[in-house]
User: Which sequence fits this backbone?
């Protein structure tokens, strides 16, 4: 089954459209996306340019998407509304959602309009989420293979399970994993921010850790190995270049799949639950 839904509205003026399970309130729209195979594993793919993404697991069978215009960190631009007038956005918010084979893909015009997406999915769902500016990503209670990136904002995940590959540039990463996929590698990296991850106490992993301008902390009883610096040499156009990489490795409960933790300016916290 393939489902396609498109919505568009401007500020206080909302276009009249017919959608299943739709609620309408000011500059907010809620739509329900039915899955081809309810009860089976699914996947959600969302990418924003400006805005936040919040995903939470629930007991239903559909994917519920609530789209809210505005709500960005930098929405207050100091614009003064003339007396007796109301401000109406000149940029319509547009959202398209398609479903095929239990994969739901959401696309928007967030390059023009800052928005917040609040999405509910069944618990057993893979997530591929990204945003660039003016927002954070928050995930609660979802178990699956998660690939999440944010350029200027935080990534927070609580009560999640499975595996995660997370990356930010300017923002903290904070994750609490209730369960892990023992066959999957994971990565938690940021350029400017802290990396704070909590695992089940019995997790088996080999931590590959690095903080250029910070410290690394853990309450796991790790067997620590500091590798010899890796030196890469190259020459081009008469220029000779040498780069050195220095990592700390730690075996958790005897070791296992590699988990990468890296920040340039910040601290790394590896905790046990």
Assistant:
């Amino acid at each position: 089954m393939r489902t396609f839904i498109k919505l568009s509205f401007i500020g206080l003026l909302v276009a009249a459209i017919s959608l299943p399970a739709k609620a309408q309130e000011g500059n907010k729209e809620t739509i329900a996306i039915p899955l081809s195979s309810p009860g089976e594993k699914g996947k959600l793919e969302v990418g924003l340019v400006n805005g936040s993404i919040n995903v939470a697991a629930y007991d239903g069978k559909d994917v519920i998407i609530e789209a809210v215009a505005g709500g960005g960190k930098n929405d207050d631009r100091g614009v003064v509304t003339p007396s007796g007038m109301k401000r109406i956005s000149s940029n319509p918010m547009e959202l398209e959602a398609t479903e095929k084979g239990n994969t739901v893909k959401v696309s928007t015009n967030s390059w023009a309009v800052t928005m917040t997406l609040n999405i509910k999915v069944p618990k057993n769902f893979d997530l591929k989420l990204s945003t660039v500016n003016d927002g954070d990503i928050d995930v609660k209670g979802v178990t699956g293979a998660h690939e999440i990136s944010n350029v200027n904002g935080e990534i927070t995940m609580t009560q999640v399970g499975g595996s995660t590959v997370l990356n930010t540039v300017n923002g903290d990463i904070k994750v609490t994993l209730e369960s892990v996929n023992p066959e999957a590698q994971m990565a938690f990296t940021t350029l400017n921010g802290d990396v704070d991850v909590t695992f089940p106490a019995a997790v088996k992993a080999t931590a590959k850790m690095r903080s250029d301008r910070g410290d690394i902390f853990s309450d796991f009883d790790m067997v620590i190995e500091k590798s010899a610096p890796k030196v890469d040499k190259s020459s081009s156009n008469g220029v000779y270049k040498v780069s050195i990489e220095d990592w700390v490795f730690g075996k958790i409960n005897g070791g296992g799949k590699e988990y990468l933790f890296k920040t340039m300016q910040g601290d790394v916290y590896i905790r046990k639950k």
Observations:
- The first strand starts at residue 2 and ends at 10.
- Residues 170 and 192 are 5 Å apart (CA to CA).
- The two ends are 41 Å apart (CA to CA).
- Residues 9-26 have pLDDT under 50 and may be disordered.
